[in-house]
Amino acid sequence: MIIEKGFVVAIDYTLKDEKGNVWETSEGDEPWIYLHGFGGIIPGLEPELTGKQQGDTFSMTLQPEQAYGVYDKDLANKVPRSAFADIDNLEQGLRLSAQTDDGETHSVTVTEITDDTVTVDANHPMAGQKVVVDVIVKEVRPATPEELEHGHAHVDGQCH
Ligand SMILES: [Zn+2]
Predict the structure, then answer these.
(1) CA of 159 to the centre of ligand 1 (A)
(2) Where does the record place the PPIase FKBP-type domain (predicted)?
(3) For the domain 7-68+127-150, what is the CATH code?
(4) CATH node for 73-121
């Protein structure tokens, strides 16, 4: 079966930075399952997968804007250090959950700590970076009518 819009695709993938450091991989874990053509995957990867089939492998380098976006310095904010008084393991690189004014939760990274302030950065950790991605196509199947209606893949028949 050939990957095209409306097919559910399972891939194994490894994301690396340009130096080859592995940032995320599905190796040793479940493959990533998504509905092709509905934006459920890194934007730059989707066109490359079109026309591939089970067993195909490829590797490509994505520009930041095709991957996790360009770096937005406005998303890095200095917060008074006192706001972190109850966090014992405060250190550079720590990932925290933050709540915005409209109640949405998102992840931030601690990027700088001074005596008075802590800089938290809401950019994706891979924002502004080229991403090297290795892909193995594990499975391709037609989506069910329900999946097409929802606009995402269901795993083991479960919506989540
Ligand atoms: Zn669903």
Answers:
(1) 4
(2) 6-83
(3) 3.10.50.40
(4) 2.40.10.330
